[in-house]
Design brief:
- This protein has 2 domains: about 10-285, Aldolase class I (TIM Barrel), CATH 3.20.20.70; about 295-405, Dinitrogenase iron-molybdenum cofactor biosynthesis domain (Nucleotidyltransferase, domain 5, 2-Layer Sandwich).
- It is built from 11 helices and 18 strands.
- The chain has helices at about 60-75, 95-105, 125-130, 145-150, 165-185, 205-215, 240-250, 280-285, 345-355, 370-375, 390-395, and strands spanning about 25, 35-40, 45, 55, 80-85, 110-115, 135-140, 155-160, 160-165, 190-195, 220-225, 270, 275, 300-305, 320-325, 330-340, 360-365, 380-385.
- An 8-stranded mixed beta sheet has the order 11-10-7-6-5-1-12-13.
- Strand 6 (about 110-115), helix 3 and strand 7 (about 135-140) form a beta-alpha-beta unit.
- The relative contact order is 0.12.
- The model is unreliable at about 1-5 and about 410-424 (pLDDT under 50).
Length: about 425
Amino acid sequence: MKKIITKDYHRHPCFNAEVKGQFGRVHLPVAPKCNIKCNFCDRKYDCVNESRPGVTSSVLSPEQAGVYMQQVLEKEPRITVAGIAGPGDPFANPEETMGTMRMIRKNHPDMILCLSSNGMNIGPYIEELAVIGVSHVTITVCAVDPEVGKEVYSWVKDGNIVYRGKQAAEVLLSRQIEAIKKLKAHDITVKVNSIVIPSVNDHHIEEIAQKMEELGVDLLNCIAMFPNVNTPFGHLPQPDKKTMASIRSMAEQYLPQMRHCTRCRADAVGLLDDDKTEEFRSCLSACSTLKPMPAHKRPYVAVGTLEGILINQHLGEAKSFQIWETDGKQYKKVEDRPAAEAGGGIKRWHQLAKILGDCRAVLVSGVGDTPAEIMSKAGIKPVEASGFIEEGLRVVYEGKATERLKGRNPCADGSCAGTGTGCG
């Protein structure tokens, strides 16, 4: 697949210190969950008194983030970067993250898209990130030796499995290395953040820098640990400026260094040297209370299809959905969007509702009662249909009765052609 847009990397103030006073960024706090537990991290919500990663005053849905983004740009047109940096990890919240990125790209095609992740679960989404046009990704790597890493992380969660100790560090490091290689293979600029923790990994930064150079990383950001009293490392001192200067000078033998990092909040907005997070706090709060967009105003329709001509896949068997839109005259396919993974019971349908959250309807050959109810409650009309895609789209967009589209429901007589992975 080919990227849809080429970005001007020089307008990203975090990657280019020379423009930190000209261009700004907005962090969209749509990712509250995290899949690892770092011993220095304390994620807080509704916190207005701290300025550090993992903190936000509100959490937004993708739809709310779209409204907030528009309001930010109206008041601060110097914003050139839209990023997701928590307050958890973007890919512990993949539906919200990908939905937000798709929406920002559609509504603001010239915006630089940026993500900051621990790297644990980003791998499966990298190809789509490249297609959307996400040009900058930051991966936080605090150890490249599991013996060091086991001291940094309390646990690492992979699906329903929780790893601890050295095994947790090994799993995370493996995923991080794979992710960085894949990001570079897709021509995405990669910055690595390394949190410098006294007596834990401060002696290990050179090894990290060496390994990241081998992987083709573009920029290294050594960040002094912020002591959080409610964490296992809360008793450790924050590395002083002299120590950090020495570490960065050493690491610069291997990779260019970021020396102007402001350790941004998950809801940061403005220029790096002219932060406006406080000014936009009431706007952020107001957007977090917005109700979901009415179904008739959602721009897309999702379609379950095998070959792109007919509506011929059951909701439960579709591994991806075609996403369509109309300009009032003709219909246009926007993209192929991955479905939620099979298994997981009812959770799968809630995930799918988030994935299709910008769709007014989903056209499929059949759907079970449970997923139909969940889709409907999320404002997505499940339409059982057979025949040509364009006819189904016409009926939905023109608000006509959808019963006319309905073919024989294969679930009703036991002849379902699904894979047995759960139609609902």
